[in-house]
């Protein structure tokens, strides 16, 4: 399965050049403030992409999915999958998506450390592809200028102790764009824009293959 990973397009989605693939994943922050017009523009573009499966989650900028849940969900086209602490299985691969990030001022889907654990506890242990808006602590999560790690410590804990996804896709920290492989897990920060909100980074392509036993590599 060829998975195309993007995130943090912030209304500049039409500048992306997307490669072909089986699944197109957007890890949140498609807008600047989650207004209806921004959301409609993104959803029209996303639905028009040729990838057989298209999955997205919201990010901390995408207020409409938190403040106007019914309206937002009604806008999602039938050909598009929106996940909010939910899973879906595509071609035998289990995806889980969550928009939640640690509290930072008053952005959307922010949760404190003791509440955020409840969201990570919902993630099934057999999840193959985890999609969260933000990174775990210590993985592609450094911010400029000091290089401080700002990822979620509770998400790191869940990944260290319980979860074993083959692929973890996120964004949120624009400076953290890239991918690393650790402990059998591919971690991808797919932020399209750099820290100055300029288009800078191409989509990240990840191929997951099944072994003879049906497990993913």
Uncertain spans? none
The share of residues in helices is 10-25%
- CATH superfamily caption: Metallo-dependent phosphatases
Largest sheet, in brief, is:
6 strands, mixed
Annotate the secondary structure layout:
Blueprint (H helix, E strand, L loop, with lengths): L1 E5 L16 E4 L9 H13 L4 E4 L7 H4 L1 H7 L5 E2 L3 E5 L2 E6 L2 E2 L7 E2 L1 H9 L7 E4 L9 E2 L4 E2 L3 H9 L5 E4 L7 E5 L2 E5 L14 E4 L10
Parallel strand pairs: 1-2, 2-3, 3-4, 6-9, 7-8, 9-12, 12-14
Antiparallel strand pairs: 1-15, 5-6, 10-11, 13-14
Helix pairs in contact: 4-5
Summary of the model, kept short:
The protein is of the alpha/beta class and 217 residues long.
Any overview of this molecule?
It is a single chain. The chain has helices spanning 36-48, 64-67, 69-75, 113-121, 153-161, and strands spanning 2-6, 23-26, 53-56, 81-82, 86-90, 93-98, 101-102, 110-111, 129-132, 142-143, 148-149, 167-170, 178-182, 185-189, 204-207. It contains five helices and 15 strands. Helix 4 runs parallel beside helix 5. Helices cover 19% and strands 26% of the residues. By secondary structure, the chain is of the alpha/beta class. The chain has one domain (2-207): 4-Layer Sandwich (Purple Acid Phosphatase, chain A, domain 2). Strand 10 and strand 11 form a beta hairpin. It has a six-stranded mixed β-sheet with strand order 5-6-9-12-14-13, with no helix packed on it. Strands 4-3-2-1-15 form a five-stranded mixed β-sheet, with no helix packed on it. A two-stranded parallel ribbon has the order 7-8. The relative contact order is 0.18.
């Amino acid at each position: 399965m060829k998975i195309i990973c993007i995130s943090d397009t912030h209304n500049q989605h039409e500048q992306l050049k997307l490669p072909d693939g089986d699944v197109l994943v957007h890890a949140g922050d498609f807008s600047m403030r989650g207004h209806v017009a921004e959301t409609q523009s993104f959803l029209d573009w996303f639905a028009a992409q040729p990838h057989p499966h298209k999955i997205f989650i919201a990010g901390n900028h995408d207020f409409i999915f938190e403040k106007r849940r019914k309206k937002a969900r009604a806008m999602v086209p039938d050909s598009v999958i929106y996940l909010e602490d939910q899973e879906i299985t595509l071609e035998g691969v289990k995806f889980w998506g969550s928009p939640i990030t640690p509290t930072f001022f008053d952005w959307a889907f922010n949760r404190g450390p003791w509440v955020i654990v409840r969201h990570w506890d919902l993630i099934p242990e057999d999840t193959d592809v985890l999609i969260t808006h933000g990174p775990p602590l210590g993985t592609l999560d450094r911010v400029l200028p000091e290089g401080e790690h700002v990822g979620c410590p509770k998400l790191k804990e869940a990944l260290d102790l319980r979860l074993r996804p083959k692929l973890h896709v996120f964004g949120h920290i624009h400076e953290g764009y890239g991918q690393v492989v650790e402990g059998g897990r591919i971690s991808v920060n797919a932020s399209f824009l750099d820290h100055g909100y300029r288009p800078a980074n191409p989509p990240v392509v990840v191929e997951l293959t099944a072994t003879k036993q049906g497990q993913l590599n």
